[in-house]
């Protein structure tokens, strides 16, 4: 059992159950999945530009990413139906907890000029979205082999019904989310 999953079952779930006065243990908010995605617009012009990012995202997430393809043709962007435009990985279970552990303890503290994650990344249903401007904050990435700096989006999907419960869940996991006072 991973460290975060064990902490959830032993501490976090109990705290949430007491704070929000939840009687049913299955109603306690939990993280259901994490989706990591990269939009690679330059891949539409040169298909070789997507290959290094596939390897990098696989190293970061621990599983092979899915190459997303365009659904529409847009002539101004020289984009045709079926061209590769991005990558995404959906993490669940043990890989999800391992990724979150590395994100919280290693990657987020390495962000330059970091003062906490914005609190407005919640969507109204307890899910949190954040963006990273470069993949080099993850220790798995060798900086000498990076040809293009690429950002990524991370969506943390929870079973919390509202932002208050989702925010409290992520704060208990250790996510450095800014509070309204700061």
List keywords for this structure.
182 residues, alpha+beta, 50s Ribosomal Protein L5, Chain: A
Separation, N- and C-terminal Cα atoms: 35 Å
Overall 3D form: globular
Q: Structural class from helices and strands?
A: alpha+beta
The CATH homologous superfamily is named Ribosomal protein L5
The CATH top-level class label = Alpha Beta
Radius of gyration: 18 Å
SS field, number of helical segments: 4
CATH fold name: 50s Ribosomal Protein L5, Chain: A
In helices, the fraction of residues equals: 25-40%
Per CATH, which architecture?
2-Layer Sandwich
Give the percentage of residues in beta strands: 15-25%
Q: How many β-strand runs?
A: 5
Question: What do the pLDDT scores average to?
Answer: 86
Q: What strand order characterises the main sheet?
A: 2-3-1-5-4
Order of helices and strands: HEHEEHEEH
Domain count = 1
What does this structure look like?
By secondary structure, the protein is of the alpha+beta class. It has one domain: 50s Ribosomal Protein L5, Chain: A (2-Layer Sandwich). The protein is 30% helix and 18% strand. It has four helices and five strands. It has a five-stranded antiparallel β-sheet. α1 crosses α4. The longest helix has 17 residues. The chain starts with a helix and ends in a 9-residue tail after the last helix.
Give a brief outline of the structure.
Helices cover 30% and strands 18% of the residues. The protein is α+β, with helices and mostly antiparallel strands and 182 residues long. The protein has a single domain, classed as 50s Ribosomal Protein L5, Chain: A.
